[in-house]
Amino acid sequence: MRLVEPFVMTYTLNSGIKGSIALSNKQIQDWMESYRIGSKFVTSVGKEYFGLNPELVADFKVHNEFSEQREHLSVNQITTNKENEQLKNAYSQYETLIQVECKCGESYVAKSTFKRSKWGCRSCGEIVFLDRNKGQVNTVEGKAWYMTNRYFVERN
């Protein structure tokens, strides 16, 4: 006969705080029911009581014997420099240049994996928007999409 092993439940609160607790199969079922209907979950773990409000839980995961094994059996593939270069070239084919001009005075060219309608200034963090009317502009690195927040940009 197999002994009842506790499962580890890892949860994340809406505030971003993470926690873990060991629960039995019955306690896990009770928690799932509480989470489903939105009622507060209270249980005893050893000699302590544990309570959790499902309304404050952003997500949770129950780890079992198999999830732990998957972590240990995962294989890291070793790639050669040639393979890395091939991957880099394949991804760089689809890179788009973006000319950013921000009201903070920052002006630079950035690379993006795809055409975007907004971007964040690397200096001040303000959002800059794609100026579709201006289209692509010539830069030192080549043609780039023009993005700015120095004036109002139509955001269709």
In short:
With 156 residues, this protein is an alpha+beta fold.
How would the blueprint of this fold be written?
Elements: E1 7-13, E2 18-23, H1 25-37, E3 41-45, E4 48-52, E5 57-63, H2 65-73, H3 81-92, E6 96-101, E7 107-112, E8 118-120, E9 127-130, E10 136-139, E11 142-148
Parallel strand pairs: 6-11
Antiparallel strand pairs: 1-2, 1-5, 3-4, 6-7, 8-9, 9-11, 10-11
Would you mind describing this structure in some detail?
- The protein is α+β, with helices and mostly antiparallel strands.
- It has helices at residues 25-37, 65-73, 81-92; strands at residues 7-13, 18-23, 41-45, 48-52, 57-63, 96-101, 107-112, 118-120, 127-130, 136-139, 142-148.
- It has 3 helices and 11 strands.
- Strands 6, 7, 8, 9, 10 and 11 form a 6-stranded mixed beta sheet that branches. It has a 3-stranded antiparallel beta sheet with strand order 2-1-5.
- Strand 10 and strand 11 (142-148) form a beta hairpin.
- The longest helix has 13 residues, at 25-37.
- The radius of gyration is 26 Å and the shape is elongated.
- The chain starts with 6 loop residues before the first strand and ends in an 8-residue tail after the last strand.
